[in-house]
Design brief:
Layout: H1 9-12, E1 31-33, E2 43-47, H2 49-54, H3 64-71, E3 82-84, E4 87-90, E5 93-97, E6 103-111, E7 114-121, E8 136-137, H4 138-154, E9 160-173, E10 182-193, H5 199-207, H6 211-225, H7 233-258, E11 260-261, E12 283-284, H8 309-324, H9 332-356, H10 364-379, H11 384-391, H12 400-406, H13 419-438, H14 443-453, H15 461-472, H16 477-487
Helix pairs in contact: 4-15, 4-16, 5-6, 5-8, 7-8, 7-9, 8-9, 10-13, 12-13, 15-16
This protein binds adenosine monophosphate and magnesium ion (MG).
């Protein structure tokens, strides 16, 4: 297997001189060198063949070398793996140093003319492991591997996942944080992204007043990942911040569009490139509910609930602005950018929702229509994915009753859709159809465009859980099946119709489906 190694992060940023793998605070450095743990009996479970292709290693997918390198068993020749130092705000509170506690960067490679960082997750302890073991279980690794790829094919900016490998080792976890510990199968995935730098990498340097290093990290990030910024001095960092705001806004608009709930939007889980990163207790909206969060750790405050994600993105950006401030020394331009975020978000959100309902000419009536829709979708439990997909079948000639029938299968409790609720829908469809009639596009053209933004297949919480339950028994077919379905989320794929279904009742309150903790 030939990887074209080209390290820049370790070559250009300050290293921790201490090479011992002891848990500690690491000062005056952006990373520490570490060696992955040797797994006792690594076995390949799944490879995302498109990612292998991206990295020019597809022909090596089934080789022994692939397995040894991407399980952490062997270090690739002439490379020096490392863990990054970062801090972060967790659930709104500054947590100090966090860092790659169970992520180990193998190297940066150039493949097909592009730069990629390769990172193992679950490959053992690092100086940043704090009180934990640096390992990951099969359950959470399946979730991250499949969801990274599903998000990519949905068109959502994300880190990717090359491979899923079981280690042959047992990992002790208290899955629900209720005192019931149990051994689970250990696993390692190899994540792939242009860079894994997070807001928290900047925050830790600012918090420690390591301003020289802060500047080095910002200059490095701009040089490689925001290459079009050509300004100098303070303006350079203002422009950088603006670009990160734009990228983060774009990411969260996509989340809202597909119904993805990240679950742990701490600032250490915010990529500086606006990529979705760190798939933990994430979930997908089934019933459309802005207050829903899959994360039981957040069940009291719902800080990271679906409807809060845009506001939390802004909150996190404020923390990034504070971290970059020492390079700018002027609050006004940063404040102006943050104020603009809210305005831009409001506009982008309406545009995105208008696309979801297939309307081209956005005006005040459309804004009212969208507000009304959000209210109706919450009136009774309504499946978000099915609703928007079926809505595309509505035609200009339909009566509001006929249109309503077309989306009927999105309701979880059809009997509740009567009286006032039915009347709300009747009024909504009357307005909707009248707006469709004012548009030039044909029903067929609208349907086609709506299908491009409203996926038919998403990684519903229960689907991931079925893959996990099977994998625990040593059967991995469902992982491959879901990987294939989710590669073409906007296509009809009648052969996979069974995955286009509302959450089954057994999954309503099942652990792993509606309830997830950070334990992974
Ligand atoms: P999270 O918010 O789950 O992404 O993780 C918060 C911090 O805890 C990060 O610094 C992680 O690297 C660290 N962490 C999470 N799980 C483990 C683990 N099993 N072993 C070591 N560190 C971990
Ligand atoms: Mg994290």
């Amino acid at each position: 297997m030939k990887l074209h190694i080209h390290n820049t992060f370790t070559a250009e940023l300050p290293a921790d001189p201490n090479k011992n793998n002891t848990r500690r605070k690491v000062f005056d450095a952006c990373f520490s060198y570490v060696i992955p743990r040797i797994p006792s009996n690594p076995k390949l479970v799944h490879v995302a063949d498109d990612v292998a292709e991206l990295l020019e290693v597809k022909k090596d997918m089934n080789s022994e070398e692939f397995l040894t390198i991407f399980s952490g068993k062997k270090v690739y020749p002439s490379t020096q793996p490392y863990a990054m130092c970062y801090g972060g705000h967790q659930f709104g509170h500054w947590a100090g140093q966090l860092g790659d506690g169970r992520a180990i960067n193998l190297a940066e490679v150039i493949a097909n003319g592009k730069r990629w960082a390769l990172q193992l997750k679950g490959a053992g302890e690092t100086p940043y492991s704090r009180t934990a073991d640096g390992l990951a279980v099969l359950r959470s690794s399946i979730r991250e591997h499949l969801c990274s790829e599903a998000m990519f094919y949905l068109g959502v900016p994300t880190t990717r996942s090359l491979s899923l490998i079981t280690t042959g080792d047992e990992v002790l976890r208290d899955m629900l944080y209720d005192g019931n510990q149990a051994y689970e199968k250990g696993a390692v995935i190899c994540r792939v992204a242009s860079s894994f730098i997070r807001f928290g990498n900047f925050q830790i340097l600012a918090a420690r007043k390591e301003i020289d290093n802060l500047k080095k990290l910002a200059d490095y990030t701009i040089k490689y990942f925001y290459t079009h910024i050509k300004t100098e001095g303070a303006q350079k960092y203002i422009d950088f911040f603006q670009q990160v705001v734009t990228a983060s806004l774009k990411m969260v608009i996509h989340w809202q569009r597909v119904g993805f709930v990240h679950g742990v939007m701490n600032t250490d889980n915010m990529s500086i490139l606006g990529l979705t990163i760190d798939y933990g207790p994430y979930g997908w909206l089934e019933g459309y509910d802005p207050h829903w969060t899959p994360n039981t750790t957040d069940s009291q405050h719902h800080r990271y609930a679906y409807g809060n994600q845009p506001g939390i993105t802004l909150w996190n950006l404020v923390q990034l602005a504070n971290a970059l401030y020492p390079l700018i020394n002027e609050a006004k331009p940063l404040e102006a950018i943050l104020e603009q975020y809210q305005k831009d978000f409001d506009k982008e959100y309406v545009d995105m929702m208008a696309r979801k309902i297939g309307i081209v000419q956005v005006n005040e009536s459309v804004e009212r229509l969208i507000e009304g829709l959000e209210k109706n979708l919450q009136a009774t439990e309504t499946d978000m994915t099915i609703f928007f997909r079926e809505l595309a079948r509505v035609q200009k000639k339909n009566t509001s009753q006929e249109a309503f029938q077309k989306i009927h299968k999105a309701f979880y409790k059809p009997l509740e859709v009567s009286g006032a609720t039915a009347e709300m829908w009747n009024q909504w469809f009357t307005l909707y159809i009248s707006l469709l009639q004012q548009e030039e596009q044909t029903d067929e053209a609208r349907k086609f465009k709506m299908y491009e933004v409203n996926p038919k297949y998403v990684l519903r919480n229960y689907m991931a859980q079925i893959a996990i339950d099977e994998a625990t028994k040593g059967k991995y077919d469902i992982i491959e099946e879901l990987y294939q379905v989710l590669k073409r989320p906007y296509d009809e794929q009648p052969e996979f119709e069974k995955w286009y279904a509302k959450r089954p009742e057994w999954a309503r309150h099942k652990v792993g489906c509606s309830m997830l903790s950070c334990s992974s």
